[in-house]
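Suppose a colleague, Dr. K., hands you the sequence of a protein chain of 175 amino acids and asks what its three-dimensional shape might be. Before reaching for any lab equipment, you can write down a predicted structure in token form. Begin with the sequence itself:
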Amino acid sequence: MDRSLRRDWRNHGVRVVRRDQLDPNTPQTPGMARAAAINHARAGANKLWAGTVSIHPNAKTGAHHHGALESIIYVVEGRARMRWGDQLEYVAEAGPGDFIFVPPYAPHQEINASPDAPLFCVVIRSDQEPVVVNLDIPVVETPEQVQWVDPIHPAQAASSDPRAEGSDDEQHHTG
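The predicted structure, expressed as tokens, is then:
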């Protein structure tokens, strides 16, 4: 292969962003702290944004959405309580190792369900655009608990999660 046609993988290949190199200069929502890890400016990504979110014990964000973006939240540490809907009328919880999917334009609120431990998550979004639309919406007092059941593995949803034993009211899968 002609060397002039080869890609410069050393300078335009894999990127590792260390935890002390995260960038807090990203749109914020009251009640949480976001920091960018992977975006075009930092790592050359063209289609994804990834970063971290931390929420203090017993804290919650304001209601917001991320426009046309899809978001995936991976809970690293702590207990996440998610409320969503036009009046945040639905609620589910996720713990370490759980994934949360937030579809485009979905009004939602992240809550740290623990009164004494921080909540740490990794967030991945489907685009570079840093869309955060903070909402001023009426909120229902008592949201409906939702337990998402995987339509591909419905029989495994409760039996495959060892944390589900002995706790019928805990929510481990959200949608």
